[in-house]
Amino acid sequence: MQRATDQHQYIQIIYLGSNSQTTRQTLRPLEITGDRLKAYCLTRRAPSFIAIGNIFAVQPVVIRHAV
What's the CA gap between 40 and 29, in Å, rounded? Predict the structure, then answer.
């Protein structure tokens, strides 16, 4: 996550949401502060703050643009 934040890469995460259900989101990580990830959620099109301890999986996302 730190590398994705530093290199402005998109990631997809699976995490335990506040409703105690597993959730998947595609994010643009902005910064890691303490035990939280601050990101822009492309899924919800809104800022997101996620507890790092609730993240189960992280995967890089490649976004391709049409020419």
Answer: 6
Residue 66, Ramachandran bin (φ over 0: left; ψ between -120 and 50: alpha; else beta): beta
pTM of the model: 0.80
Per-residue tokens: 25: 């989101």
Amino acid making up residue 50: I
Give the containing element (helix H, strand E) for 3: helix 2-6
Tens-place pLDDT, residues 16-38: 988 889 999 999 999 999 999 99
Q: Where are the beta strands (DSSP E) in 1-67?
A: 10-16, 22-33, 36-41, 46-51, 55-61
8 A C-beta contact, residue 57 and residue 17: no
